[in-house]
Specification:
Keywords: Signal. By secondary structure, the chain is of the alpha/beta class. The chain contains 16 helices and ten strands. The protein folds into two domains: about 30 residues, no CATH class; about 375 residues.
Length: about 425
């Protein structure tokens, strides 16, 4: 304890006033140092021993091909809709070249307008599919979506966060991968609770991820993380249903959040050829400063510690695999890197990275039914120039072990 106090004192002396973000990162690193990472346990962290870090990864490797033979998506796709929208038949014929899948809590007009202008309009048009939580008034929030996207809005489903939704998430995620395996949700909650009961909560701002709020149990943290991935999956299912109904296919699919505000234009037309050349590659884009994006692009995904979970894009098959984290959770969660000292942070991003690893290794397994899959942190054209901001912060102090109240504070990206 004395050495820790001395270390903290030294860090305070070195951090300039007004740099709260640097101090917060240094405070975390002082307690949770991890080999082969920089002092803030953040990118460009190098985690090249992911397979060894996984607790049961090697033991389950023989089950990988069969693990993809999943027919459980129907149960995972159960909805608790309070409002549905689809335009008239005259406006839903065929497909545009591009699709944008939006999930999360219903975003503000600023972020949605930015997505419309800087992605859809910049690409010559895109079809929009949204599966979101109503924050206050679903009809009013639907009007905001329609104002932003007009006739490009192909399908929207609104839900409210409730105890029924939470119990559904638990029932899907708590399945067992095999007769001898423990139930997945309870297993990960137990592991995180045992290993990180004294997590460094409260050193980050209230708008950060729920695992940084000490008052929230690991069960609630994981429920909110999986709630986000459930909405990603359901938005993907809306797009896939439209393709089946119209007998058409999109060249490029984008997954984004309702509150993600593009900082610059992204013309998807420049990705058509590289996506056709690598249709099974998902691109998990990074929102951080350019120097981080550049350093990641040099070494990731080979040494990745996680995958960014806010914006992704790729071909139809790659984005289908990307979106199936929720229904496949119980099959890959055993690969979660619990041996890392910083494994309690970035839970959603680590789950996505583990899901990507599992998918990629399954694709390369010597036998069995499997789908090709790989992932990348750069855009399909090899560039790293696209960036975005989140339109608002979320108050996680409102979260508890009970169902999230139906207020703006209770329906942020933690349940998106």
């Amino acid at each position: 304890m004395a050495s820790l106090r001395r270390q903290r004192f030294t860090l305070v002396a070195l951090i300039p006033l007004g740099r709260a973000d640097v101090w917060e990162a240094a405070a975390r690193a002082a307690v949770n140092k991890t080999a082969d990472c920089h002092r803030d346990n953040s990118p460009p962290c190098a985690c090249s021993r992911r397979g060894e870090d996984a607790l049961f990864g090697a033991a389950l490797s023989s089950e990988l091909p069969g693990a993809l033979d999943s027919d459980l998506a129907v149960d995972a796709a159960r909805e608790f809709a309070i409002l549905r929208f689809a335009p008239t038949a005259e406006r839903t014929r065929g497909c545009a070249r591009f699709a944008i899948e939006i999930s999360g809590a219903a975003g503000g007009i600023g972020a949605l307008n930015a997505t419309a202008r800087r992605i859809s309009d910049a690409s010559g048009g895109a079809d929009i599919f949204a599966h979101v939580y109503a924050v206050r008034d679903a009809p009013a929030e639907l009007a905001v979506l329609r104002a932003a996207f007009g006739p490009a809005l192909r399908a929207v489903v609104f839900e409210r966060w409730s105890s029924a939704v939470e119990e559904h998430i638990f029932s899907v995620a708590n399945r067992a991968a095999s007769a001898s395996a423990p139930r997945a949700f309870e297993w990960l909650v137990g592991q995180l609770s045992d290993r990180f009961s004294r997590r460094r909560c409260g050193v980050r701002k209230a708008g950060m991820s729920p695992e940084h709020r000490c008052a929230i149990s690991w069960r609630t943290v994981l429920a909110h993380v999986l709630s986000m991935w459930r909405k990603v999956f359901l938005a993907s299912e809306l797009r896939a249903a439209h393709e089946r109904a119209r007998a058409c296919a999109y060249d490029v699919v984008v997954r984004t959040r309702a509150d993600a505000k593009p900082a610059r234009a992204l013309d998807l037309r420049r990705f058509v050829k590289p996506v056709r050349a690598a249709p099974s590659t998902a691109h998990a884009l990074c929102p951080m400063r350019r120097r981080y994006r550049k350093r990641r692009a040099q070494t990731w995904p080979a040494t990745a510690c996680w995958a960014d979970d806010q914006v992704g894009l790729g071909g139809r098959s790659a984005m289908r695999a990307y979106a199936r984290l929720f229904p496949e959770f119980h099959r890959f969660v055993w690969w979660y890197p619990l041996a890392r000292a910083d494994a309690w942070m970035h839970v959603s991003e680590r789950l996505l990275g583990v899901h990507f690893d599992w998918r990629a290794r399954a694709a390369g397994a010597p036998a069995g039914r499997r789908e090709p899959f790989s992932w990348e942190v750069k855009q399909p054209d090899g560039k790293i120039d696209f960036n975005w901001l989140l339109d608002r912060e979320v108050c996680y102090r409102c979260m508890s072990d009970r169902a999230i109240p139906q207020t703006r504070k209770g329906a942020g990206d933690g349940v998106g």
